[in-house]
Design brief:
The chain is mainly alpha-helical. The chain has one domain. 79% of the residues lie in helices and 0% in strands. The N and C termini lie far apart (64 Å). The relative contact order is 0.18.
Length: 333
């Protein structure tokens, strides 16, 4: 293939993808505008607005771009999350928390598998929701869905998980500070508990600084430690599922998780200038917003309602388990 032929193919592919990609980013921009003016999570608005445009993912010029955004651009957005964390932030928490937080993550994912059996849901759903609750909410749900085996309900389960963890995060942002103060914890302990239990980063920051600056700073660092565990969990699941059973399709290797870890390391040693880090962080937020908009367009509202109360039961049970486990851990520190 000549250079001209290759350029022509790439140009044709870009023209094919452009309408769907532009639509996803337009919905993401609308969601961010609404979020900034009404104070609710942008991810949730992006998902709901995307679902209102479900017909665009069925047929027409936007289909290819919507699928591209929901898969490839999603992975780029997750990879860029690595710029938010440094080893310095992690080590500043001390050795005890560096042990406790990964243990809570493992226990919560295990609880997700247990609750999925109790509520008669699939083990894949338990892993997806358990990982989202344990690590970083909607972002973790999107990343985990990329490495779990593809099933008929995978996409629908992912969207449900995003809605559930985002809604529960908003409730926790209001209720958890009141709960932890009433239990007599210090500001530092409250910061640890908020950072260890609330699902999404924005709600962690909101809840922490609502208590005090000390609680807010501590909550943010603890939350970033949870985010730093994301590539480890992704790679572990990818290796497990790539072994697969005979005749079973293997999940693709998650290079985006490796990129996440690489960016984290490079950022930790100071090789990424601050302006570049800020641009990468902003790029990650926009890509994840566009990806969740695209996923919303690929799922109908009826399919979401068809999932039933048992799906909700799993996520609520995992959230309560994580909160209780964190309180026990901090009480004995």
């Amino acid at each position: 293939m000549t250079l001209l032929e290759s350029a022509a193919l790439h140009r044709a592919r870009a023209v094919e993808l452009a309408p769907g990609i532009l639509m996803a980013f337009t919905i993401g921009a609308a969601a961010r505008f609404i979020s900034e003016h009404y104070g609710a999570p942008a991810m949730l608005f992006a998902l709901l607005l995307g679902m209102a445009f479900n017909f665009l993912a069925m047929e027409g010029r936007c289909v290819a771009g919507i699928h591209f955004t929901a898969s490839h651009l999603l992975k780029v957005g997750v990879a860029l999350l690595g710029v938010r964390v440094t080893f310095g932030q992690i080590t500043s928490l001390g050795p005890i928390l560096i042990i406790i937080i990964p243990v809570l993550i493992i226990l919560t994912i295990g609880a997700g598998l247990a609750f999925s059996k109790i509520f008669k849901r699939s083990s894949y759903f338990g892993l997806l929701t358990g990982g989202a609750v344990a690590i970083c909410g909607a972002s973790a749900a999107l990343a985990l869905s990329s490495v779990l085996p593809k099933t008929e309900t995978n996409q629908r389960d992912t969207l449900f998980t995003v809605v559930a963890v985002t809604s529960l995060s908003t409730m926790a942002m209001i209720l958890y500070p009141i709960l932890f103060v009433s239990l007599g914890f210090s500001d530092t302990q409250i910061g640890v508990l908020i950072g260890a239990t609330i699902h999404d980063v924005a709600q962690v920051v909101g809840a922490g600084y609502a208590v005090s600056d000390e609680a807010g700073d501590t909550a943010t660092y603890v939350k970033l430690l949870r985010v730093a565990c994301l590539p480890i969990v992704i790679l572990s699941l990818a290796v497990f599922f790539r072994r697969g059973e005979a005749g079973e399709a293997k999940a693709p290797f998650p290079w985006f998780a490796v990129a996440f870890a690489a960016i984290l390391v490079i950022n930790s040693i100071g090789l990424i200038p601050s302006f570049a880090a800020q641009s990468m962080d902003a790029g990650s937020r926009w890509l994840l917003l566009a990806a969740i908009s695209a996923l919303g367009m690929k799922t109908s509202l009826k399919e979401m309602f068809d999932l039933g109360a048992l799906h909700i039961g799993v996520v609520v049970a995992e959230t309560v388990f994580l909160c209780a486990a964190a309180i026990v851990a901090i009480s004995f520190m």
